[in-house]
Amino acid sequence: xxxxxxxxxxxxxxxxxxxxxxxxxxxxxxxxxxxxxxxxxxxxxxxxxxxxxxxxxxxxxxxxxxxxxxxxxxxxxxxxxxxxxxxxxxxxxxxxxxxxxxxxxxxxxxxxxxxxxxxxxxxxxxxxxxxxxxxxxxxxxxxxxxxxxxxxxxxxxxxxxxxxxxxxxxxxxxxxxxxxxxxxxxxxxxxxxxxxxxxxxxxxxxxxxxxxxxxxxxxxxxxxxxxxxxxxxxxxxxxxxxxxxxxxxxxxxxxxxxxxxxxxxxxxxxxxxxxxxxxxxxxxxxxxxxxxxxxxxxxxxxxxxxxxxxxxxxxxxxxxxxxxxxxxxxxxxxxxxxxxxx
Length: 342
Hints:
The chain is of the alpha/beta class and 342 residues long. The chain folds into 2 domains: 3-63 and 160-341, 3-Layer(aba) Sandwich (QueA-like); 67-146, QueA-like (Thrombin, subunit H, Beta Barrel), CATH 2.40.10. The protein is built from 6 helices and 17 strands. It has helices at 139-146, 187-195, 234-245, 254-264, 304-312, 315-327; strands spanning 27-31, 38-42, 55-59, 61-63, 67-72, 78-86, 91-97, 107-110, 115-122, 129-134, 172-175, 199-205, 228-232, 250-253, 274-278, 293-297, 338-341. The strands form 3 sheets. The protein has a 9-stranded mixed beta sheet. Strands 5-6-7-10-9-8 form a 6-stranded antiparallel β-barrel. A two-stranded parallel sheet has the order 4-11. Helix 5 crosses helix 6. It is globular and about 65 Å long.
């Protein structure tokens, strides 16, 4: 299957540059996978589809202020460092700009020396740097002082309230990008969902910027997926397993929750509490083990996320739905409207 099989024309004016004033007022395109029909709703209408005994699985990872501006030792040129993955003991996989100024051994300084770092190695395949940070105190508190929110490259307008790039249930810091399907939920809507008898469950998957990395290989099977760290606790595992045993449906909020669930589930669709790294790549032909319904945003052409939802429905259904979204001027990407594959 070719990368070009997942291409569609997207007018630039449909790329949402800012969130709506009210999170759950976004539009909702509903795709019925059985017949391929499309309906146009609003996000609050998901209450009509969720049923008592179902469970809603959300990714509670919280975006960190992962964009740092500093200087290399002996130079005045600004260096941008974007934190991608925490490898422990102060070691992070990072993107840097300009890359030529951050060769192995380069020493960096941020905030007049409040935070310093050393480039330990360079990955020749993708250009990412392994950087060791040196500091006194708590790293996340230092990031709060020195860092900024790493908005996706297609968002060019300033975000006045950084909390609008966090879900209302974000809890565990570690992501370089938001699990954006969850941005539509409000605390009030989640309360109504619980009152309907739907269980809320949370996994953590720290989203890396590999999410936005384009697929370069013409044959999609040649694409190498990025790895992301995930965890599922005992409580969530019990909620999901009880839901399945009792005949309820498992709803995944977003592709990150989907990838986490499909990584953990056994062939019978049951899960055990665990943590680890996943580089699962889901594309047409994949057989889903646990996810029954999927809530997601509208994704970039030719992206791995387009391939995932085309595996959950069919490529033809998804391309038709996306044409309907474009024709009806839905808002796309992180701050855009939503889609439900039912």
